[in-house]
Recover the amino acids of this structure.
């Protein structure tokens, strides 16, 4: 007989690297917004793999694409052309500013590619000394050494120094600070259009436009990290499209293939030309399984009214949270775009997350005090109502 859920959890506490504060449940199945643990308990999932399962768990089109592709070709080297990879690159370019795509396997890896491309482009164009990238305080760009060095939060750096040289941090949403930081050594500015892990922080209306102008004036590149907010999460395919300011480079991952690991760096042709064969690579990047699903994700987002649902349901969830804010003074703020929504509390959010879990709802907390809601973009009003009823009860018991 196989091991029980409890046994696997106990073993996991010993054999898994201690990198996540895991909840003591083992999820075994998912469908739409629902997931079930090994005891058969059902949950409504407002985490969605942290902005990964945009189409919900085991979406039939995703499952079908995986099954078909698994029978056809699971992997081949990038020494050869892969049909679904070309198809996904075409879709990403058709629907964004981009003209060329590099595929990899995660958000951190996509950002590593962006950092390398920006440096290579600047060195070829402007000389060896132009390598510094300005990034934002309170940002998160990933845990590999380059992406970690780009991340503007000391708590993530601690214990891993020395960091990669060549990053300078300035406050988010502060154009003057960026202007002051740009020097002869600067090659790019890298920013999350909306800071996600940092607590769902939205920029002021003119911020991205101002950044682009500064970059153009000083001939440096603008890089958007859309790893968490891209792929429909904000109600448009890419978050930058709300602000109508394209970058030179954009990174994607998380929901690009609805949970099949993938990352992508999208760039203009001119900038992408700085890479040539041998300068950068990823064995699994653009693998047939992941890119086949990526095509299905984009087509479904655009053809099945998912972006519209995201906008409508996002507005509804914000409205319901604001109703709670009017009644509970410890809710300090409610903010977000589409279905990446934060409710900032006057205290640590973990206790609320724990209570929701007991009651059969997965939610998440980021930046200590911000309850984060990133449900699949197919969430219904009825599912939101169920969560809000329970949240209201939990808040009223405080
Ligand atoms: C904005 C942003 N960039 C990069 C990353 C890193 O992505 P990954 O965990 O796939 O390496 C994250 C992860 O949360 C993220 O939110």
């Amino acid at each position: 007989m196989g091991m029980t859920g409890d046994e696997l959890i106990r073993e996991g506490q010993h054999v898994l690297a201690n990198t996540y504060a895991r909840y003591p449940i083992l999820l075994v199945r998912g469908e739409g917004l629902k997931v079930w643990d090994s005891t058969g308990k059902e949950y409504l999932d407002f985490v969605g793999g942290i902005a990964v399962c945009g189409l919900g768990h085991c979406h039939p089109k995703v499952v079908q694409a995986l099954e078909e592709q698994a029978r056809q070709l699971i992997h081949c080297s990038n020494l050869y052309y892969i049909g679904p990879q070309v198809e996904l690159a075409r879709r990403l370019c058709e629907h964004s500013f981009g003209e060329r795509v590099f595929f990899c396997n995660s958000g951190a890896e996509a950002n590593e590619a962006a950092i390398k491309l920006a440096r290579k482009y600047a060195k070829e164009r402007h000389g060896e000394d132009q390598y510094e990238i300005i990034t934002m305080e309170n940002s998160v760009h990933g845990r590999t050494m380059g992406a970690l060095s780009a991340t503007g939060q000391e708590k993530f750096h601690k214990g891993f120094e020395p960091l990669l040289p060549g990053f300078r941090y300035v406050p988010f949403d502060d154009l003057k600070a960026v202007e002051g930081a740009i020097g002869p050594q600067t090659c790019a500015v890298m920013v999350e259009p909306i800071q996600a892990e940092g607590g769902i922080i939205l920029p002021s209306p003119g911020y991205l436009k101002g950044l682009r102008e500064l970059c153009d004036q000083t001939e440096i590149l603008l890089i958007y990290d859309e790893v968490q907010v891209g792929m429909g999460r904000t109600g448009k395919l890419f978050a930058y499209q709300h602000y109508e300011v394209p970058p030179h480079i954009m990174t994607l991952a998380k929901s690009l293939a609805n949970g099949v690991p993938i990352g992508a760096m999208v760039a203009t042709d001119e900038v992408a030309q700085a890479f040539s064969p041998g300068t950068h690579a990823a064995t699994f990047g653009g693998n047939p399984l992941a890119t086949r699903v990526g095509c299905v994700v984009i087509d479904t987002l655009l053809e099945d009214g998912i972006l519209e649902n995201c906008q409508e349901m996002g507005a509804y969830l914000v409205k319901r949270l604001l109703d709670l804010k009017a009644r509970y003074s410890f809710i300090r703020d409610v903010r977000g775009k589409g279905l990446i929504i934060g409710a900032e509390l006057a205290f640590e959010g973990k206790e609320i997350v724990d209570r929701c879990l007991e009651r059969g709802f997965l939610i998440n907390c980021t930046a200590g005090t911000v309850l984060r809601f990133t449900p699949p973009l197919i969430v219904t009003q009825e599912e939101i109502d169920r969560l809000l009823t329970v949240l209201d009860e939990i808040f009223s018991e405080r």
In short: The two ends are 44 Å apart (CA to CA). Residues 310 and 345 are 24 Å apart (CA to CA). The first strand starts at residue 27 and ends at 31.
